[in-house]
Amino acid sequence: MKDTEEADRRSGTGGPPAFRAAVDALRSTRLRPQVEVEPTPAPQRLAPHAYALEAVVVDGDQELADGRLVLLHDPAGHDAWQGTFRLVTLVRAELEPEMAADPLLPEVCWSWLTGALQARGLGYGEPSGTITRASSHYFGGLAERPPASQIEIRASWTPREGLGGVPDTASHLASWCDLLAQVAGLPPAGPGDASVVTLPQRRGPQPQ
Known about the structure:
Layout: H1 2-11, H2 17-28, E1 30-31, E2 35-40, E3 49-59, E4 62-78, E5 83-95, H3 97-100, H4 105-119, E6 124-136, E7 148-159, H5 169-184, E8 197-198
Antiparallel strand pairs: 1-8, 2-3, 3-4, 4-5, 5-7, 6-7
Helix pairs in contact: 4-5
């Protein structure tokens, strides 16, 4: 029985009905093909129930950005969340030198996150996060490498709950992928864009 509960916890098939419905919606979301998304082990100490996805934005053989999105659920509610669900994200991408030097870059990146949610008409509350800009300079045996800069977005927000206490997690995932694509420098997908794919499902046991 314990092994079954552990498998349900990792796959998102366990937990209360509202959580299972929210996870099912994430799994059925269709996304633009440049964003490859798959399940990944979720952190276990943030909430009673959690489900996580990781994503990579690709252009040919090149990875332009990557990220992780975690859905948290506490049926008893959480004072800091002001709700029973919470979405937590990490997004990273390499930057062009001229963009890395922009003093307004942190504010712009935060506006990309909120703008992606607003563009899809999503209700949310209690947003919080940090924008980190890092630069790497190479010396010695690595001196031939050009300097590199990276932006990292860490954020969380409370999705508005709908019927049955279930948030529209599919649309929140789509908006998160919009953010990933924007950070990666891809053009926005048109409203009639049919170039979408279904989330791949990881096979076999999940690593701890």
